Amino acid sequence: MFKTISLPGTSALLKSPFIFGVATASFQIEGSHNTRLPCIWDTFCSKPNTIADNSNGNHACEHVKYWQQDVQMIADLAVDAYRLSISWPRVLHQDGSLNIQGMAFYKSLLQALKARNIKTYVTLYHWDLPQHLEDNGGWLNRDTAYQFAYYAHIVTQQLEGLVDSYATLNEPFCSAYLGYEIGVHAPGIKSQKAGRQAAHHLLLAHGLAMQVIRKNCPKIEAGIVLNFSPAYPFTPDDERAAKLADDYHNQWYIQAVLEGRYPEVIKELANDAKPDVANGDMAIISQKIDFLGVNYYTRIHYKNTPDHWFSEAPLENIATTDMGWEIYPQGLCELLLSLNDRYTLPKVYITENGAAMADVLIDGKVDDIHRINYYHTHLNAVHNAVEQGVNVQGYFAWSLMDNFEWAYGYEKRFGLVYVDYQTQQRTLKQSAIAYRDFLKQRQK
Q: Cross-referenced SUPFAM superfamilies, in alphabetical order (predicted)?
């Protein structure tokens, strides 16, 4: 068990231009729900049996209220960069006009970060679709992709000079599959056709937004953030299941973005489950990106099913996080190498990596040695991938602080910083101190 975070002294991760940061998402931390439009997660939280602890994002970490102390907290961690998302329903009114108060919040936040020489990595969509757009079909409505492009236009105009890097979407897999296909995330729709169609419209939205970013701020790098849970066969006889699962959950998104086509698994789908793809869509989706954001937490084992499809095969007697996810750091290295072998990749950022642990605050201290060990082993996995030729240029720890963990509510804590949701007191966990010490040592 590692009690500190370290890398080999010769590691490229310790040298410029490699950047280290922390990451958050708007709905998970901001609170202040009365100053924005309702989003699909507000609606989802209000329904019975959707959120584990029956909570919502109305208050979360009250970041809109405490943003100044949070910026200082970020600076004190000695990071190079902060990855955040813009809340679509906070910056636009329903008629499409600018919410001046909402945009002013982000301008002040980004200016404060800039003043501390912290690079700003802005994600335009981290799942909080305005509810009025969902009422018109949400991501099942092709027009939502064009609405997103308009939103991207307003944001990139308004935040000129304040952003170092734009990501269009965070984890379209989660938005589409969890939200529209199996219904465990907002908006709670359960339909394979809906899931595949939502995925296509999300990717179309990415492509349209990329065109907007190129036009409005051509000197700013732009890309997309995709999550990967590498698929492994449960037994040697389950290779086909693992391949199908990988194509369906992982390659579906990256292959469309980088190569302009969906994987062969699309041919396995019934005709009424395949997405409607208009002429020219794949060319829009697959224009050049400057970076690929990779989110990695765990791997998944799959087994064959009688109907020649795949299903998850849970393992026994393995180390897991509080989410029940296997801790498998070498999977991050294996993932990066496999992507690098399969595709011509742009530069890569690890845009999310971290662990939920059953943290307890005792005498003002959270002794989360298991999280320190998680970060140490996963950072060394990134180092190993870079040593073998993968062009990784940044790493963002998820998350800066404990927050609203979607369908788990406030039951799961991913933060480097412990949040008491009653008092909004922030306390640096031992992992935050270890991360800070590691970064300060690097900067000497």
A: (Trans)glycosidases
Measured between alpha carbons, how far is residue 35 from residues 30, 91, 92, 93 in Å? 11, 10, 11, 11
31 has pLDDT over 70:
yes
Q: Which tens digits make up the pLDDT trace of 158-190? A: 999 999 999 999 999 999 999 999 999 999 999
Q: How far apart are CA 439 and CA 444, in angstroms?
A: 9
Beta strand pairing call for 231-233 and 291-296:
unpaired
SS3 of 56, please?
Answer: coil
H or E element that contains 322: none
Cis peptide before 399 (omega within 30 of 0): yes
H helix runs in 98-238, sequence order = 100-115, 131-134, 143-158, 172-173, 192-216
Mean residue pLDDT across the chain: 98
In 3D space, the residue among 131, 128, 112 whose CA is nearest the CA of residue 120 turns out to be 112
Give the integer Cα–Cα distance in Å for 388 and 375.
20
Is 181 annotated in a binding site? The answer is no
* Nearest CA-CA partner of 356 in 397, 299, 313: 397
Residue 103, CA distances (Å) to 22, 24, 50, 85, 235 in order: 22, 18, 30, 12, 52
How many angstroms separate the CA atoms of 338 and 336, rounded?
5
From residue 262, alpha-carbon distances to 167, 201, 277, 285 in Å are 21, 13, 11, 11
Is residue 293 within 8 A of residue 351, CB to CB? The reply is yes
Please indicate if the annotation marks 398 as binding a ligand. Answer: yes
Asked if the model's pLDDT at residue 198 lies above 60, the reply is: yes
**The two three-digit tokens of residue 98, written as one number:** 């600018």
Percent of the chain at pLDDT exceeding 90: 99
Give catalytic residues, as residue numbers: 171, 352
Q: CA-to-CA distance for 203 and 232, rounded, in angstroms?
A: 26
Residue that is written with structure tokens 């794949």 in the block: 282
